[in-house]
Write a structure and sequence with these properties.
InterPro entries: HdrB/HdrD_reductase
Shape: elongated
Protein name: Succinate dehydrogenase subunit C
Strand order of the largest sheet: 1-2
Strand content: under 5%
Number of strands: 2
Number of helices: 6
Helix content: 25-40%
């Protein structure tokens, strides 16, 4: 994750984190890995193809707009999940659930970015 990379590469940030955790009796050992649920579905559980046969009540007729946000896809050199310019894994899962993915302009935008769609 980007957080783990930053702590490893930036001694100032790592020191501040240690100073914050120390009074709580805690310390960061560098083993924690923050992952998005979509990453777990795709990378660990086999993705949409493994999910599809497990669906008992498909979401037929439901239109769903996937929202990737910025942290799931960027920075790509640290996250390495899907194509940051044109991702498809979320839409694949939506289809596997029986719903119809809807394409819209802000699906890969940061959550705090202004919406004009």
């Amino acid at each position: 994750s980007l957080a783990r990379h930053t702590l490893k590469e930036n001694a100032t940030v790592a020191r501040r984190v240690e100073e914050t955790l120390r009074p709580l009796g805690l310390r960061y050992e560098g083993r924690a890995e923050a992952r998005h649920l979509l990453q777990i579905l795709v990378e660990d559980l086999g993705g949409a193809e493994r999910l599809k046969p497990l669906i008992r009540r498909p979401l037929t007729g439901l239109k769903v707009g996937a929202f990737y946000g910025c942290h799931l896809l960027r920075p790509h050199d640290h996250v390495e999940f899907d194509d940051p310019e044109d991702p498809h894994s979320f839409e694949d899962v939506i289809r596997a659930l029986g719903a119809e993915p809807v394409d819209y302009r802000g699906r890969c935008s940061a959550a705090g970015s202004p919406s004009s769609s």
